[in-house]
Amino acid sequence: MKRVYLDNAACTPLDARVFEVMKPYFVEEYGNPATIHSYGAAPREGMEKGREQVAALINSQPEYVFFTSNGSEANNMAIKGVALANQARGKHIIVSEIEHFSVLQAVKSMEKLGFSSSQLKVGTDGIIKIEELENLIKDDTVLVSIMLANHEIGTIQPLAEVAAVLKKVNVLRLMRKLQPVYLHTDAVVAAGVIPIDVEALGVDLLTLASTSFYGPKGVAALYIKNGVRINPLIDGGIQEGGRRAGLENVPGIVGMGKAAELAKEEMEERNKKMLPLRDLLIELVLKNIPQVRLNGDAKKRLPGNVNVSVEFIEGESILMWLDDVGIAASSGSACTSKALKASHVLLSIGVPQEVCHGSMLFSLGKDITKEDIEYTAAEFTKVVKKLREMSPLFKKT
């Protein structure tokens, strides 16, 4: 049976070249990088090389990159760390309504500690309404968190424009001796996929994760601009410059570094291959399946993202049928699809609740082929037809 993996938004496969550089750090170079004896030297060097490679991917200085266990931890570190470190100056946070749950839930946790929050709306294309941002900023606002690209619908946000708004606001706040508003972006699904320059974007904090660009699981990073006031989430040792206590995942960091290096080198080539195949899948689905809609902006989206909603059937049913023919996809983000609730992202862009349940996310990877896309489109069309024949809702139309 043919197998096609189209769930790269949840996790990309580990690149064999990445695994090769990781191997020695599992068995041979096993020392603690914090030690001063010779056993710690190679792990320390490998870890710092990984930091340099990750920093190069986002055009940062290595000393501003701090490793964590995953993207959710890094997002929590950014939200809670900045909020707690600056609470004497303000207790208001702004996020977009389509953020990943690790951001939204972190903000909810801060609300229990007396913080308040506001949500920036998005249009039907999934792009933030940037003209409303300035109106949401208050004197006690300390942080704005807007994702670079969405984990479900793939829309890419005008983050540099957000930074420009905050730069203007912060000039005025400085004159009034108010706390500057920091800007955080969750770039987990964007890093290693599209070009990122933290200087050009104007962000103060940025989250990225290894699993989005063919690196190992269990390792991610948070970029923290020099001068940002932030508290650590985990107390203990002085690892990661005192930002994140605990022995680092050395093999994972080495692997993330190599994956970042490869992503930077091969990004243009990968996207040149994926973009036309993404557009082909969209074309075939919209052409062959009636009553289906593309979610998110048609062009301002990640090169491997295809998110569609099919009326009158459940996404979980589609997933199971596709799995039977060797196709792996998703009915929502990996962190929320098991909850069987309508996607807050799709609801925010105006998709009716009953249609949200028929959403499908096909996320392409670097090794996808035209044959894979044509096979997926054909099988998806067959599955939808079969399920609609069994759907009492479809029969009423």
Detailed description of the structure:
The chain is an alpha/beta fold. The protein has two domains: 4-12 and 267-395, Aspartate Aminotransferase, domain 1, CATH 3.90.1150.10; 16-262, 3-Layer(aba) Sandwich (Aspartate Aminotransferase, domain 2), CATH 3.40.640. Helix content is 41%, strand content 13%. The protein is built from 14 helices and twelve strands. It has helices spanning 16-22, 24-27, 41-57, 71-85, 101-111, 133-136, 159-175, 198-201, 250-288, 315-324, 344-348, 353-356, 370-390, 392-395; strands at residues 4-5, 65-68, 92-96, 116-120, 141-145, 182-186, 205-209, 220-224, 292-294, 305-310, 327-328, 359-363. Strands 2-8-7-6-5-3-4 form a seven-stranded mixed beta sheet, with helices on both faces. A three-stranded antiparallel beta sheet has the order 9-10-12. A two-stranded parallel sheet has the order 1-11. Strand 5 (141-145), helix 7 (159-175) and strand 6 form a beta-alpha-beta unit. Helix 1 runs antiparallel to helix 9 (250-288), helix 4 (71-85) packs parallel to helix 5 and helix 10 crosses helix 13 (370-390). The chain is globular. The two termini are 35 Å apart. The mean pLDDT is 95.
User: What general outline do the C-alpha atoms trace?
Assistant: globular
Based on CA atoms alone, the radius of gyration comes out at: 22 Å
- The CATH superfamily of the largest domain is identified as Type I PLP-dependent aspartate aminotransferase-like (Major domain)
Please give the alpha-carbon distance between the first and last residues: 35 Å
Number of helices: 14
CATH topology of the largest domain: Aspartate Aminotransferase, domain 2
Mean pLDDT: 95
